[in-house]
Q: What sequence folds into this?
DNA sequence: CGACTGCTTGAAGAAATTCAATTTACGTGG
DNA sequence: CCACGTAAATTGAATTTCTTCAAGCAGTCG
């Protein structure tokens, strides 16, 4: 039997539930829990999609590679997020644990099956796909048209929304992950963060080697860098 | 009564039909045809989504703007394509006719209604959203990690697939549209095309003012620039 | 302890943008 | 019908932004 041990964040409190795949009398598909060490691959691009995942604890990066190794991270999956959904037989991204991560798994097959007969499940599949689409669309604008400082500002605001209730966010990912998410290099990300720090807009703390404690000091100025469309 | 006057391209021959919204005994929602002059807005970002559209003739660009006017085109909709679908009340893009364009329209409401009760309609909605998602995901990699020449090469290959059966493609869009699709400037796109021309990989023809007849001369070389992931 | 990773910063270089000029077509109106 | 203004595209030169290369520092882990 599955017992939820962590309170999931409000914005996606019951996504597997909405899915009708965890609660109620009829949980179809075995619901497994699985732990991944930091850096471990969860699935690879092109592999058959067997499971759908939800993050119990930790963080996941989802990326594509060019043949020469250039990497583009499409999304980070944080606690509560569901990922691995794909209408199609195969995964279109590779995913890895950013830190030690625990996931819940359900069989994709069972989702498909239930979606075929149950309207609410089908609607949820659609709304989750639509949410991913919206994220990707916004990210297109960022990658195509924002400069380095704007990209980093947008990133910080996104992460602030998604992982800090307290006002201090503790980024799970390295600068290289941020860089590959924003279409920049590590150095450029670092320089942008330094500039934001010098300008008194954010404070970057942590030891010299893992400076991932970020506080937004001047939200208005940060928002003014995160241009609206 | 609707009479289809143009043969739609094979790859999306009956998308509205798949949708169960044009054929059969029960076409729900009036199916209107509407003509847009080149440059005309079809709908704006943030507006309520009233219709779903299919391109009968012409081409459409779908874009977002930053507050200072920088533009990112997310997608071009060519003959046969369906667009304007959004699970959500509002459009997330502005769309405009790239050239004089005729569209078929159906009421979004009627699609939603039928999707609620008919499995096949719901599944089609999902698969179309998933197709858009896949396109956006691939475009993220292009925008974030490809250089100018690779971007243009990828663009030409995409357009070649989508609009030329003959081997010569006649681009409906201006260089500025291509630039805003690829996250470049007009000049950079022009220079990339010139380089591809000088290298004998493509030929760019047309009068000096509308050089939009493009022939791929060396498909292998072009593909080698369009790196796989 | 020593190799390694993560991060920052500086200097040099490359790629793309910006600015500017030119060409050619198109459309509008005198 | 032709002149004029405008739009689309290309090309060159200057500039900017970002990347690449290089070095250094501080933690971590075996």
A:
């Amino acid at each position: 039997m599955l017992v939820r041990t962590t309170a999931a964040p409000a914005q996606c409190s019951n996504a597997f539930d909405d899915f009708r795949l965890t609660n109620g009398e009829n949980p179809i598909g075995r619901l497994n829990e699985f732990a991944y060490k930091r850096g471990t691959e969860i699935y690879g691009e092109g592999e058959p999609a067997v499971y759908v995942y939800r993050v119990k604890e930790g963080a996941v990066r989802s990326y594509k590679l060019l043949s020469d190794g250039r990497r583009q991270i499409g999304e980070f999956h944080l606690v509560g997020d569901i990922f691995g959904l794909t209408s199609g037989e195969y995964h279109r991204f590779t995913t890895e644990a950013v830190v030690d991560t625990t996931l819940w798994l359900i069989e994709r097959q069972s989702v498909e099956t239930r979606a075929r007969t149950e309207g609410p499940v089908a609607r949820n599949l659609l709304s989750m796909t639509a949410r991913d689409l919206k994220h990707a669309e916004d990210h297109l604008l960022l990658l195509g048209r924002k400069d380095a400082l704007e990209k980093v500002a947008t990133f910080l605001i996104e992460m602030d929304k998604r992982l800090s209730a307290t006002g201090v966010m503790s980024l799970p990912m390295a600068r290289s992950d941020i860089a590959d998410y924003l279409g920049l290099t590590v150095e450029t990300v670092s320089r942008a963060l330094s500039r934001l720090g010098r300008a008194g807009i954010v404070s970057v703390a942590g030891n010299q080697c893992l400076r991932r404690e970020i506080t937004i000091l001047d939200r208005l100025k940060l928002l003014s860098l995160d241009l609206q469309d």
